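Practice problem 4.
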């Protein structure tokens, strides 16, 4: 065996060790996809290895286009290159309903790990849809249903009916970007109930929200209530002012006629003439004493 052949064999062995990970970091473990309401977040466990610097992670994805048209190439996730976090938001990277392969690797200085892939391909249609949050108001002869935090590309189906008449319910469909549904020309004073759920491509549905009911007020209700309160306050203030003015400007004779004082009962009068009868013995002990003026010496 020549020396050059020995060198080539040695290089092959060394490259094999490097590819197998002997001289590299361990690959990140626990790679999972958390997808709720069309928000797709790839997660993995932090690397348990001694590193003098921060461990940085990089993420790549491969969709149907990359797999078939670009000969199986991988694309870097722009927001998740050399990141210290153990998660990556891929919501806007996974932009089609195709299957995606996902992988992540770690780096510690000049040391690199091998790629670790998600166990199976991910399709955004596998996302979990939660119950939509809604606020219900009925004013001006119309019903308004407001939603918050709706999933992207989904639709919302809203069922509206008169209380105790759900068999005659109407179903309205709106895009998630719309956020607000207005149902006009409803009967004033009638109570309407609403229930809603989200749907994705007619294949995936969320659970229905709790039923909420509200009474529809007329178009004038918005100003009737404050106007009534204001008129009541003005009338009460006028009455109080009239009473106060009458008391201040009342003449003495008029006030006596309007505010006549009833005489006190005999028991409460102060000019009592109290006479205490004396017994004959006490009467005999009493005699009149005449006091003479003093004489100066």
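Answer key:
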């Amino acid at each position: 065996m020549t020396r050059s052949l020995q060198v080539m064999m040695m290089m092959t062995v060394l490259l094999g060790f490097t590819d197998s990970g002997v001289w590299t970091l361990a690959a990140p473990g626990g790679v999972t996809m958390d997808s709720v309401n069309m928000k797709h977040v790839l997660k993995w466990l932090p690397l348990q290895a001694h590193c003098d610097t921060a461990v940085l992670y990089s993420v790549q994805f491969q969709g149907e286009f990359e797999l078939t048209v670009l000969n199986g190439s991988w694309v870097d996730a722009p927001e998740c290159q050399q990141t210290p976090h153990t998660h990556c938001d891929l919501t806007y990277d996974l932009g089609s309903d195709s299957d995606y392969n996902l992988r992540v690797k770690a780096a510690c200085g000049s040391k690199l790990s091998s790629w670790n892939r998600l166990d199976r391909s991910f399709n955004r249609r596998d996302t979990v849809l939660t119950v939509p949050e809604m606020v219900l108001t009925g004013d001006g002869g119309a019903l308004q249903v407001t939603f918050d935090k709706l999933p992207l590309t989904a639709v919302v189906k809203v069922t509206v009916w008169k209380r105790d008449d759900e068999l005659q319910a109407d179903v309205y469909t709106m895009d998630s970007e719309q956020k607000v549904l207005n149902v006009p020309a409803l009967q004033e004073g009638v109570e309407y109930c609403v229930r809603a759920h989200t749907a994705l491509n007619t294949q995936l549905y969320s659970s229905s929200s709790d039923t909420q009911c509200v009474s529809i007020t007329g178009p004038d209700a918005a100003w009737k209530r404050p106007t009534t309160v204001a008129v009541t306050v003005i009338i009460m203030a006028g009455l109080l002012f009239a009473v106060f003015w009458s008391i201040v400007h009342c003449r003495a004779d008029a006030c006596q006629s309007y505010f006549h004082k009833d005489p006190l009962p005999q028991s409460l009068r102060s000019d009592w003439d109290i006479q205490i009868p004396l017994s004959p013995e006490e009467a005999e002990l009493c005699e009149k004493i005449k006091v003479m003026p003093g004489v100066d010496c």
